[in-house]
Amino acid sequence: MAAGAAILASAAPAAAPAPGTPLADLAALTAPEMAGRATGTDGGRRARAYLAQRFADLGLAPLGSSFVHPFSFKLRDGRAFADAANVLGAVRGTRDPDRWLVISAHYDHLGIVDGAVYPGADDNASGVAAVLALAAHFKAHPPAHSVLFACFDAEELSLQGARAFLARPPVPVDRIAAVLNLDMVSAGHRNEIYLAGTHHRPWLRPILDPAVRRAAVKVLYGHDAPPNSGNKLEDWTYASDHGPFHLAGIPFVYFGVEDHPDYHRPTDTFARLNRDFFARVLPLFVDVATVLDRELAAIARAAER
Ligand SMILES: [Zn+2]
Questions:
Q1: pLDDT tier at 13, thresholds 50, 70, 90
Q2: 130 C-alpha to ligand 1 centroid (Å)
Q3: How remote is the CA of residue 229 from the centroid of ligand 1, in Å?
Q4: Is residue 5 part of a domain?
Q5: CATH number of the structural domain spanning residue 62
Q6: pLDDT tens for residues 277-292?
Q7: Cys-Cys crosslink for 95: which of 69, 144, 242, 291, Cβ 3.0 to 4.6 Å?
Q8: What's the angle, vertex CA 226, arms to CA 222 and CA 227, rounded to 5?
Q9: Domain annotation covers residue 12
Q10: Main-chain phi, psi angles of 267, to 5 degrees
Q11: Is the pTM of this model over 0.85?
Q12: Does 7 reside within a domain?
């Protein structure tokens, strides 16, 4: 951008997002007091409290006595984490409430490293804001099957939140027919987003194709084939919280953008996120979630669940 244009741009700063919108959630989760939302830190606990309050405000049903589901874990390097927690809420299905679709995004990020805050706007405040938008959508348009909204903790520490969820599931695992996982969904530098999962479940393609064609962004299938298959794209099957679900035999649909220069850097900020792209992917996620709900019994049959 030329210097003159930069002056014009700075003279007209982007308006603050309206309360209750996905951009407002994104701004809140990347605010200084969230301090990068690292697991077991004050910033992580503030993010957790914010999400539990949003779930309550949206009118989601808790699974058990609280939206907050604590867990602890120990890493191979010996580091122990006693205060991790997933935030879980549900909208019950109108026709078949005992069959579940999980819609997930991890809310933790890297926190403060060597004095620098890593706000994690794209990774993954964006996915969490999208999950909240989907929760609002399904409250207003009740699904046929039950939908479990999961904001996972400790994804950045080897997918611990998703593992804890499946180790002590709040609903029977064999009643979970599919998971839609969102992780890094706002930094669409080429107006592109990847949809992973159909390499493992090719019969998902005809189910998803119409929504993919309707999307206002370019949706590319891929990033889900093992490296020895001749596929040049990195295999993301275990790169985010859908990995443990896949291991449990649950079909996954994952949306995420290609790695970018701000990935896992302090520059992954609210100010730098691509608002136009983010506004274009939200209707795509609503579309795909609606299709998954509509087809959930067929998906369960195809996956022999
Ligand atoms: Zn992530």
A1: low
A2: 14
A3: 25
A4: no
A5: 3.40.630.10
A6: 999 999 999 999 999 9
A7: 144
A8: 100
A9: no
A10: -85, 0
A11: yes
A12: no
In the block, tokens 């002056």 appear at: 7
- Per the CB < 8 A criterion, the answer to whether 217 and 288 are in contact is no
The answer to whether residue 230 scores a pLDDT higher than 90 is: no
CA of 222 to the centre of ligand 1 (A): 17
- Flag whether pLDDT at 226 surpasses 90: no
State in Å: Cα 110 to ligand 1 middle. Answer: 10
Domains identified in the chain, total number: 1
What is the gyration radius of the CA atoms in the chain, in angstroms?
19
| Cα 4 to middle of ligand 1, angstroms | 36
The reply to whether 277 falls in a domain is yes
The encoded tokens of residue 242 equal 């859908």
Whole domain around residue 215: which residue ranges?
17-302
Mean pLDDT of 119-134: 98
- Which of 156, 141, 30 has the alpha carbon at shortest distance from 84? 156
Q: How far is the CA of 173 from the centre of ligand 1 (A)?
A: 23
CA of 156 to the centre of ligand 1 (A): 7
